[in-house]
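Researcher: Here's the sequence for the chain we discussed earlier.
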Amino acid sequence: MKRSRWWLLAGIIGFIAIAVGVRTCSPTSSWLDNATDDSEQIDPGLTLRDVTLEQQDDDGQLLWKVDADEVTYSANQEIANLVNPEGEFYQDGELLYRVKADTGIIRENGKLILLEDNIVATGIQNEMVLNGQSLEWQPDNQLMIIRNGLTGRHPQVRAQADEAYIYDAEKRMELLGNVIATTVTANPEVEPWLKLQGETLQWRWDAETLDTDRPLRVERFENQEVTQVLTGQRSLVELAEERATLEENVQGQLLDIPMSLAAEKAVWEVNEQIIQAEQSVRVVNSEEQITVTSQRGQFLLEEEVAIFNQDVLAIAAQNNGRLSSNRLRWNLDDQTILAEGNVAYQQTDPQLTIRGARARGRIEAQTVLVDGGDSVVTEIVPDF
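Model: Thanks. This is the structure I predict for it:
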């Protein structure tokens, strides 16, 4: 059983002054497992100033320590109301946080500390700086809860949310409600960085990961502009590897190409500028009115090249040109394609169907060269 000690830092003279109704600037109080005798009981509603309160566990290890300008006790002496508290929270005898706020309450024999307004919590071991308007500390559960708006910064990420649950023993934080998290770079005006938006997000700072099983939007910024956007129903962001994996109804916008994509899974190597898409891949270039579907796709963003594999079908809306193959390489800069394996090309005007081993050209311009290897090469040119 934990025992609460609120140490008497002033002498007997201060206590006598309080007893006759004079409020001094030095006394603090001591709760010794409700074992103080009647002469040492604190008067209900008593206000003490310049107070230091602390609590230890059964082994004598410090659980928390709070300094306050004023402390006012409830009638049953089970609640202490604090003014301008500044404190320290401990775990296994080690300092975890330094905290401060405008007001606070200590309840449940020191097992619950509530801080309100202009909160600053500085993590000594986890390197966090957290700000909010409501903080709850549960020493027994090693749990900190911040409500009514959280903003925080760390060498890995900066984050904001409606509330956060911080489990220091497990080295993780749960962010809930209107979550925005951004990765940290030395020069964000020039260097690329990610912005994550969703309703829930779990951050494991030791593993350097962010994950969620709810919808998440991931944006890549470079030179202060959004270059790519991916969304998914489940996501994992590995900060050290600079990798984002999104699953289930993945949607994407490659804004600097421009092109949109859809798939069931996408692995985004952010630093290498490569996106690997799997399962029911669909890509649309709205400017050229070309749609490509396949089972797998790879997007080399810096090279502006897309590579598709398995059940590939490219369709040009302008002439309903259709090109199917096992593999397709699409140069997004000049819109040329190279298709290989079981190639079949169809168009409606003029109506043609041609098969071969390879094809190259531009579908939207109806200029496609089909090569059958050792067979005859056929060129298809539109009527003018």
